[in-house]
Amino acid sequence: MYIEKIAISNFRIYGGENCIGIEPIPGKNVIIISGENGYGKTTFLTALVWCLYGSQMQDVDKYYKDRILAAGGYRKYLISSMNRKAVVDGQKEYSVSIVLKDVELPGITCNSMEISRSYNINNPNDSFTIKMDGKTSELVDDFGRQMFIQDFVLPKEIAKFFFFDAEKIVEIAEIQSIQDRRFLGQAYAEVLGIRRYELLRNALNDLRIRFRKDSANDFEKDQFRELGEEINRISTSIRRDEQKKEALITDRGGLRIQSDTCQEKIQREGRGFSPQEIRALQDEKTRVYEETKRLLDEFKQLFEYAPFAIAGGILVNLENQVRYEGAWKKSYSDYKMLGEKVKSIMEALENSNGEPLNMIDRVTRDYYLARVRELLQQHLLQPQQKKQSDEFRPLHDFTEEETNKLNVMLSNIRTTYRSRLQALSRSLKMNRVAYSDLSRRLALAESVESDELLRSYRLEKDRIDKEISSVDEATLVLSEHIGALENTLTSKRAIFEELAQKIKVNEKYRDMDELVNRLVYELDTFVMRMKSEKRDSLESRILSNLSILMHKRDFVHRVFVEIIGETLDIHLIDRNENEISKDDLSKGEQQLYATAILQALVEESGVDFPVLIDSPLQKFDDRHSRNVITAFYPSISGQVVIFPLLNKELGKDEYSLLIDRVCKTFVIENSNKDGSGFREIVPINLFGKDS
What we know:
The protein has 691 residues and is an alpha/beta fold. The protein has a domain at 2-191 and 530-685: P-loop containing nucleotide triphosphate hydrolases (Rossmann fold), CATH 3.40.50. Helices cover 62% and strands 13% of the residues. It is built from 23 helices and 13 strands. It has helices at 41-53, 62-71, 74-80, 84-88, 138-143, 145-153, 170-173, 178-192, 194-215, 218-271, 275-303, 306-310, 312-350, 355-358, 362-380, 383-391, 400-415, 417-445, 452-502, 507-549, 587-605, 622-632, 652-658, and strands at residues 2-11, 14-21, 30-34, 93-101, 112-120, 127-132, 163-165, 558-564, 567-573, 611-614, 640-643, 662-672, 675-681. Helix 22 links the parallel strand 10 and strand 11 (640-643). Helix 22 (622-632) runs parallel beside helix 23. The longest helix is centred in the middle third of the chain and has 54 residues, at 218-271. The two termini are 33 Å apart.
């Protein structure tokens, strides 16, 4: 699948109709779209994401969610996205359309697919259409347009791996918190297609419960009904609170903008700072603050392991006991199995109607049968083993999953716990110093209070900040209430399933219930095996990509992907089997690491979709840039669109390494502050005819 052309009309800085054809040709899969800062490179990517996902674009990346929150919600974001000159000229609609070619759909031949989204400022919602070979499709109508994009074009959970800012992907290298690891784990599950198997498993489990509900007596049916109503009530309360929380977050975004505006006025009046300097200081202070919060969250999570690290001896005893119990379970299982085999053999002998046994008198027959039983028990079932099995009582009786979690925790404590704790402590100290310095510098701009105008700005800011605090408190209360409701919901669902397990399935459902049980077991086994196999594949791909991209040979000796439940974490191991702290990597190395992860996930996904890269080659030295240009960009996809700032993010020397793979080049030109458009240039002339 590749993009043939894109049309952007009156969307943000792209005034009027702007159409660009970016179809690749064999052997040349790279397209370059360059432009100055502020001309519309990032807006181009935003237009494509909006066209595909609409209001769900905020689920693709935090950048889009922040933009929507800052605008005051999706409706206001739609209104603010209308090109300003088009508004002055009396126009009321903007649109974005994407034409895809070579789209593979199950059982359907489709040469061309056109996806279009438009918005009229007089309407409450956007308009979304999908056409196949110029016509509407029953398949699209049956699925629903947005679900069709999700299932057959590009799932939103992995879209950020195809639309990414090469400067901001460093965030992937900085993933530390459980929430971050859960996001990466969910994205990986989407890459593997596990979500569909999990949905199927849930549907089968619901079917099992329905069998038991239909088999229940009147009293049990009343219990089912009461529990079901309570579960629905709690679920409704959670959804209602989530909506209230989302509304509060939206309100906070608008208040934050008002507060920042007042702050700029205060600082401009107080110190004569330029708006750019004020914004840079504020952004840096916010970044340091958010980074400190993230580090503190990670520190708290690590601190939860402290009691276990202190109680090392007890944990070792626990590990030995669990290992012993596991061995006992296997031994006891073997003992029971052999006992059943002996019993089956003796029953077969005793019930035999063969002639040789009928020719022997009863006393002799019973003697030899007893002797055979004695010999089988003597050689197969050792008395000592039976005695141990009868006398042993497990203390913990861990499941296999619980044992694996214990082993992972012990591995973390023994290997990476100390180094991660030290690195976090260093980073926290540095951030506190930086935050203090930034606060002092910003406070200087607020120190002058010589006139009423400045006082009025300060009073207005204080009022808005109090509103923000009230919103934060209300959001916290809602979050705590949602957490309590979710815990209650989990408990009620467990009781619901436990009740279902106690009910004997009606005879008419028994065969179907056994089939469903077997399917659920096979699904669980299949997903576990898939995760294990794909984990090995992902480790291999990341290591291979790092070896190609990094110029430090053998810097990373091994990659270990840790999957626990819904979370995923990636560990880099050196030749001495020590974990490499990601905090110790340079920004360039962090970006290479994140790039290697992205490439591995794209390769693992098997999704045939173009990759679009904003701000390429940021923070790379010459050797790393060469590796990325020659080994990463040309191979990551059949169509790669790069948005560089010429002579800064892509120079002549770097371009010369890539030009053999370039099929088209464009420059974004800005005719006025509200009007950008595209001009195609012959690739060899991108840097001028003398290039």
